Amino acid sequence: MRVALLPTEAGGSYRLTILALATIGLLVSALPVLVVATMSFSASDTSGFPPESYSLRWYGDVVRMFLEEDTSSAQSVVDSTLTSLLIALIVMVISTVVSVPLAYALARGERRVRAGMELLFTLPLVFPLVMLGIAFLLIAESLSLDLGLWRIAIPHVVLVLPFVLRNCLSAMNGISVEIEEAAISLGAPPLRAIWDVVVPLMRAGILAGLIFALIISFNEFTITFFMYTIDVSTLPIWMYSRTVSSLDPSTLALSVFIIVADVLLIVLVDKLIAGKGNLF
């Protein structure tokens, strides 16, 4: 039997209120994206909103920036993009390697220990990102070591680990211990049962965590602003350098490309969580 979530009889005001709040929430969340997307099609050199005329000139500039050598900045947009992708790849691998066994241990462990560990790994989300950036900067400077990419990758791992862990833990909660015990009773060693039975059943949660790690690390700015050097810089830092004195409209067009990629990845995550996608 179908149940109506929004009452239609004697509840018209309630239905209108819910729809109005949903519309306001959608507009507020989508408004910055709509403004950036609209201004990226401006034909003028100024950044006024709304644009007086429209063209694709800034999208052409973005394509040229990736195809031609850039001598105007210390690090080109190509180098910055490759650095962001490489750091995101490192973060994805490390956070997944840590989160999968940790999620298994927490799901199969004592409830009290699990609650404490979950709270501990949530702490990076509680602290302001500025404080985390300053803390990692002080640590890096005190070490006096040339960390290279790891100077940015390590803080990113700390930042994305709660998201990856929670996705893996959610997947692990849906796996009954009886399935694992059945594999062991049929002769499989415990580690073989985990690898052949448990990990494949966690695949949707693992891939969702991987995608969240990619999106968060690739777009992260606040902590990276404290940690980047002239030799190691990411795409968000490059975009900021192009807008700090005056807004470069080509960065708006580049932002649209990033937003489209992020939306496609989030749609993929939704399909995976709903069981409509596949990992391997």
From TrEMBL:
Keyword flag Cell division: no
Subcellular location: Cell inner membrane; Cell membrane
Gene Ontology terms: cellular component: plasma membrane
Keywords of this entry: Cell inner membrane, Cell membrane, Membrane, Transmembrane, Transmembrane helix, Transport
Alphabetized Pfam families for the sequence: BPD_transp_1
UniProt record, GO biological process: transmembrane transport
Domain of life (superkingdom): Bacteria
Residue ranges crossing the lipid bilayer per the database entry: 16-41, 85-107, 119-140, 152-169, 206-230, 250-269
ABC transmembrane type-1 domain mapped to chain residues: 81-269
Membrane topology of the entry: Multi-pass membrane protein
Family membership noted in the UniProt record: Belongs to the binding-protein-dependent transport system permease family.
Name of the protein in question: ABC transporter permease
Organism encoding this protein: Alloyangia sp. H15
